[in-house]
C-alpha cells in the first residue's frame, strides 16, 4: 500500500507511548468536523482507498490463539501473549515482553462424540523483543527462553496484521537450531493475557450489600495527588494487571445459622472449599478461583485468609494449590462499609474491602507478600498498608499507592510459566524465584532494641513434628511495643531452613492470615542480675509442614533461621541447629510413607480437623499415637488428634453449615494423658512451652467437660513444675490465669495475646 504520509518506524515501546498508526496529515480527525466537505487547499491530497484498511485503532498487545498451519486443529497449538504497546481502557505499564504456551491437540472420542482435547506442554518468554511497526503490520522478533527443560537455540518471528481498525491476527514462526518450523496462525482473542473464572459464595449471616467492592478512586482524600478518578472493582483491578476476571453472576448462599456455630476455623474453611470445588470435574490445574465471604474467623483479628491446598489429589507437594480464599465481613475493618460511601470512614472501609479481596485473590496467582520477596517498600496489592507505613511513615502507603501490582508481579502474572501461575499448578511460591530465597542471608546490624532468638530441642526423633520457640526480647532501656504474632502464617516472620543436602528453602505456611497486629509491650531490659520476664515474649511455632510439604522429612542436620519484620524493624535470629534422627526400628521405617502424606501434614498445620477430606491423615495420626504412645511422635500425634476430636466441627452440606462432629472432650483428654505425664516427668526446659500449651488445651477440654476442678488442679501443678524449673515470674502469673481465661473465652471474650488461638465450646458468643 502506498501511503507516504505514514512512514515506517522502529522503536522500543514504553509505557504511555501511543503507537497507533496516526491519521495522515491531509486527512486528520478534523476532516469529519463542520468543514469536512469544504474545499481544501490544492496542496492537500486525499489518501488512497487502501488507507481505511491500514488504519489501526486497537493496540497490538493482548492474547492470541491458534494452531500450527500444517496440522490444522490436530497437532500443535499456541497461546500467544504480546505486551508491546499500551492496552485500551486500563492503567498499567507496558512490559515489552512476548510469551506463550504450547499445547498438543488431538481428537478424543467420548460417549460417541468426537471432541478436540488440548494438552499443555510448556511455556516460553522473549525477554527483549524487537518491534517494528509499519502502516500495515507489526513485526516482532526475539530470542526464546523456555522456563523448563533443554532446547536448542530458538528464535521467534511474529507478524501482526489489522484491517479497518481491528486486529485480524498474528502469525508466529519458531526457528530452532537454525531450522524454521511451520508457522502458527493465531486469531486475536482478548486485550488481556489470562482469563480466570471467580465464583463468590456468601454465608447467609453476611449475604448483604455491598457483596463486591466498588470504589471511586477519589473517594478517600489520602491518595496520590495525580491519581486519575475512576471506578475500581475486583475485575478492573485485575484487568489493569492483564487478567480478565469473570465473576459468576450466580452465587451460593451458605446457611451458617447452625446452633453453636459462630466463627470459622481453618479446617472448616478448607473443607468448605473442597465441597465447592467438587463441582469442577474437569480436573486441575484450571483457571478457576473460589472466594467466600464469611462472618468471622476464630482469631478475630484476621480479615482475610488464603488456602494453599486441597485434598484428594495425592501426597505432599502435589496439587492442586492456590484455589480458595475467604474474606471476613464482620471484621472491624468493614464496620462502616456501605454501598455508596459518603464519609471518609465509609470510603476507607470500601477501599479496604477492595484491597482485601484483590490481595487474597492475588495469592492464588502464586504471589508471596512483598516483604517475602525482599521488596518491603513495594507499592503493591501484595504489601500490607500498615507494614509499609511502619517503614515509611504514617499514611504513606495510601498516599502513594496507585491500585496496582508491582512490575515483577505483573511480569509473573502475565508472562510467567503457566504451571506456576495457574490455580492448582505448581505449589505456592514455586514461581517466585525462591530456589535461593531472598532474605535468607539477612544479618542484623548492631544496636537493635529487639532480639529474636530461636531455641528449643536440638534433636527430634524421626517423623516427630518439629516445633521451636520464637522469642522476642527487649534489649533497650525503654518499653518496646511488638506485634506478638510470631507464627509465619501472619506474615511477620519469615523462616528459612537449610536441609541436610545444603539447599535452603523458604518455609511458608499452608495458610496466610491477613489481619491487624496483636501488640505486646516489652518492658525495658532488666539490669544485670535478674529479670521478671516482662522484657520478653515467646511462642512455640510449629514448623513440621508447609507449602513444600514436610520440611524435616529426612534424617540429618538442619539449620533454621528466621527474620522478624514489623514496625520498621527487621531483625534476624540466631541460626538454630537441629538434628533429625534415623528410624530406630523397621516399624518406624515402614510407617514413614503413611505418615509423610499431605493429609497428615494439613491436619497438623490446621491444628486438627475433622474434615472427611483429611480423614486418612487423622486415622494415621491416631495410629501413630497408639504405636508410639509416650514417645515424642506419639505425644504430638495424640495432641493433634485431641485438637480434632475435642472441638465441634461444622461442614457445608447442601449449602448449609451443619454440625459434622460434636466435641468429645473426654476422649481428647484421654488421648493426651500420656503426653501430660511425659512433660511432667522429664523436666527439660526445652519442653516448657509444649507442656504449657498442652495444659492450656486440656484446661479448655476440662471446662467443656464441666470439670473446672480438674482444670484448676492441672494448672496449679503446671505452675509448680515451671516454678521449680526457674521460669520467670511473668510467665508464672500468666499460667495461673489459665483457668479463668478459659472460662472467660467460653463466653466469647477474645483471649489475651499470650493465650492460644483456639475456640472453647460453646462457640456462639453469650447474648
> Which consecutive residue ranges, at least 5 long each, have pLDDT under 50?
1-48, 278-282, 309-320, 430-436, 741-767
Major beta-sheet overview: 12 strands, antiparallel
Structural category is alpha+beta
| Quantity of strands, as a count | 36
Separate helix tally: 17
Radius of gyration, Cα only, in angstroms?
30 Å
- Helix percentage: 10-25%
> N- to C-terminal separation?
80 Å
Global geometry: globular
Portion in strands: 25-35%
Mean pLDDT: 81
Structural description of this entry:
- The chain has 767 residues and is an alpha+beta fold.
- It has 17 helices and 36 strands.
- Strands 1, 2, 3, 4, 5, 6, 7, 8, 9, 10, 11 and 12 form a twelve-stranded antiparallel sheet that branches. Strands 13, 16, 17, 18, 19, 20 and 27 form a seven-stranded mixed sheet that branches. Strands 22, 25, 26, 32, 33 and 34 form a six-stranded mixed sheet that branches.
- Strand 10 (166-176) and strand 11 (179-180) form a beta hairpin.
- Helix 11 (615-627) crosses helix 12, helix 13 (665-682) runs antiparallel to helix 14 (688-704) and helix 14 crosses helix 17.
- The longest helix has 20 residues, at 344-363.
- The termini are far apart.
- Mean pLDDT is 81; it is low at 1-48, 278-282, 309-320, 430-436 and 741-767.
Amino acid at each position: 500500500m502506498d501511503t507516504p504520509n505514514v512512514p515506517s518506524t522502529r522503536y522500543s515501546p514504553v509505557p504511555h507511548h501511543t503507537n497507533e498508526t496516526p491519521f495522515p496529515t491531509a486527512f486528520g480527525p478534523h476532516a469529519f468536523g463542520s468543514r469536512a466537505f469544504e474545499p481544501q487547499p490544492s496542496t492537500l491530497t486525499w489518501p488512497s482507498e487502501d488507507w481505511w484498511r491500514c488504519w489501526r485503532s486497537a493496540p497490538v498487545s493482548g492474547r492470541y490463539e491458534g494452531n500450527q498451519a500444517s496440522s490444522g486443529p490436530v497437532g500443535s497449538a499456541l497461546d500467544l501473549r504480546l505486551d508491546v504497546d499500551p492496552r485500551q481502557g486500563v492503567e498499567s505499564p507496558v512490559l515489552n515482553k512476548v510469551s506463550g504456551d504450547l499445547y498438543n491437540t488431538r481428537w478424543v472420542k467420548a460417549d460417541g462424540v468426537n471432541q478436540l482435547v488440548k494438552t499443555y506442554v510448556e511455556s516460553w518468554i522473549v525477554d527483549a523483543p524487537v518491534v517494528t511497526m509499519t502502516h500495515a503490520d507489526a513485526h516482532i522478533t526475539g530470542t526464546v527462553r523456555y522456563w523448563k527443560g533443554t532446547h536448542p537455540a530458538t528464535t521467534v518471528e511474529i507478524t501482526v496484521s489489522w484491517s479497518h481498525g481491528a486486529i485480524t491476527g498474528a502469525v508466529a514462526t519458531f526457528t530452532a537450531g537454525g531450522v524454521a518450523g511451520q508457522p502458527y496462525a493465531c486469531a486475536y482473542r482478548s486485550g488481556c493475557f489470562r482469563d480466570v473464572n471467580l465464583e463468590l459464595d456468601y454465608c447467609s449471616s453476611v449475604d448483604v450489600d455491598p457483596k463486591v467492592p466498588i470504589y471511586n478512586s477519589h473517594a478517600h482524600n489520602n491518595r496520590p495527588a495525580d491519581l486519575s478518578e475512576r471506578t475500581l472493582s475486583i475485575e478492573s483491578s485485575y484487568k489493569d494487571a492483564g487478567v480478565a476476571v469473570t465473576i459468576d453472576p450466580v452465587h451460593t448462599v451458605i446457611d451458617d445459622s447452625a446452633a453453636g456455630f459462630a466463627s470459622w476455623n481453618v479446617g472448616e474453611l478448607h473443607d468448605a472449599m473442597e465441597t465447592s470445588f467438587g463441582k469442577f470435574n474437569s480436573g486441575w490445574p484450571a483457571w478457576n478461583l473460589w472466594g467466600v465471604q464469611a462472618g468471622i474467623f476464630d482469631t478475630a483479628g484476621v480479615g482475610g485468609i488464603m488456602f494453599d491446598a486441597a485434598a484428594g489429589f495425592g501426597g505432599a507437594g502435589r496439587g492442586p494449590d492456590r484455589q480458595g480464599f475467604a474474606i471476613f465481613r464482620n471484621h472491624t475493618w468493614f464496620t462502616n462499609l456501605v454501598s455508596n460511601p459518603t464519609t471518609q470512614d465509609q470510603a476507607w472501609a470500601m477501599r479496604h474491602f477492595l484491597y482485601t479481596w484483590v490481595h487474597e485473590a492475588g495469592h492464588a496467582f502464586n504471589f508471596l507478600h512483598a516483604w517475602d520477596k525482599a521488596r518491603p517498600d513495594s507499592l503493591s496489592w501484595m504489601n500490607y498498608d500498615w507494614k509499609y507505613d511502619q517503614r515509611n511513615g504514617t499514611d504513606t502507603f495510601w498516599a502513594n499507592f496507585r491500585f496496582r501490582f508491582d512490575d515483577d508481579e505483573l511480569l509473573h502474572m502475565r508472562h510467567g510459566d503457566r504451571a506456576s501461575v495457574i490455580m492448582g499448578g505448581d505449589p505456592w511460591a514455586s514461581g517466585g524465584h525462591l530456589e535461593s530465597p531472598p532474605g535468607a542471608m539477612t544479618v542484623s546490624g548492631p544496636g537493635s532494641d529487639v532480639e529474636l532468638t530461636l531455641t528449643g530441642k536440638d534433636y527430634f526423633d524421626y517423623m516427630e513434628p518439629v516445633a521451636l520457640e520464637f522469642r522476642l526480647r527487649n534489649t533497650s532501656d525503654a518499653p518496646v511495643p511488638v506485634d506478638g504474632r510470631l507464627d509465619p502464617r501472619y506474615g511477620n516472620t519469615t523462616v528459612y531452613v537449610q536441609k541436610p543436602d545444603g539447599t535452603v528453602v523458604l518455609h511458608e505456611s499452608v495458610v496466610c492470615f491477613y489481619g491487624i497486629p496483636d501488640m505486646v509491650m516489652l518492658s525495658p531490659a532488666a539490669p544485670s542480675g535478674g529479670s521478671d520476664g516482662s522484657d520478653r515474649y515467646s511462642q512455640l511455632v510449629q514448623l513440621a509442614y508447609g507449602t513444600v510439604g514436610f520440611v524435616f522429612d529426612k534424617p540429618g542436620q538442619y539449620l533454621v533461621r528466621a527474620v522478624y519484620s514489623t514496625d520498621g524493624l527487621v531483625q534476624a535470629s540466631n541460626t538454630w541447629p537441629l538434628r533429625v534422627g534415623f528410624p530406630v526400628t523397621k516399624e518406624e521405617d515402614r510407617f514413614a510413607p503413611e505418615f509423610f502424606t499431605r493429609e497428615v501434614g494439613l491436619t497438623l498445620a490446621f491444628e486438627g480437623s475433622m474434615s472427611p477430606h483429611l480423614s486418612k491423615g487423622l486415622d494415621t495420626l491416631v495410629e501413630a499415637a497408639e504405636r508410639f504412645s509416650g514417645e515424642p511422635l506419639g505425644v504430638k500425634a495424640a495432641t493433634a488428634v485431641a485438637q480434632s476430636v475435642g472441638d465441634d466441627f461444622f461442614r457445608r452440606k447442601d449449602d448449609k453449615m451443619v454440625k459434622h462432629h460434636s466435641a468429645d472432650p473426654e476422649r481428647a483428654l484421654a488421648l493426651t494423658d500420656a503426653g501430660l505425664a511425659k512433660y511432667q516427668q522429664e523436666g527439660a526446659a526445652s519442653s516448657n512451652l509444649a507442656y504449657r500449651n498442652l495444659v492450656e488445651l486440656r484446661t479448655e477440654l476440662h471446662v467443656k467437660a464441666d470439670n473446672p476442678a480438674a482444670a484448676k488442679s492441672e494448672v496449679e501443678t503446671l505452675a509448680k513444675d515451671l516454678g521449680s524449673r526457674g521460669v520467670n515470674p511473668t510467665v508464672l502469673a500468666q499460667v495461673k490465669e489459665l483457668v479463668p481465661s478459659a472460662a472467660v473465652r467460653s463466653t466469647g471474650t477474645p483471649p489475651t495475646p499470650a493465650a492460644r488461638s483456639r475456640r472453647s465450646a460453646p462457640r456462639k458468643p453469650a447474648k
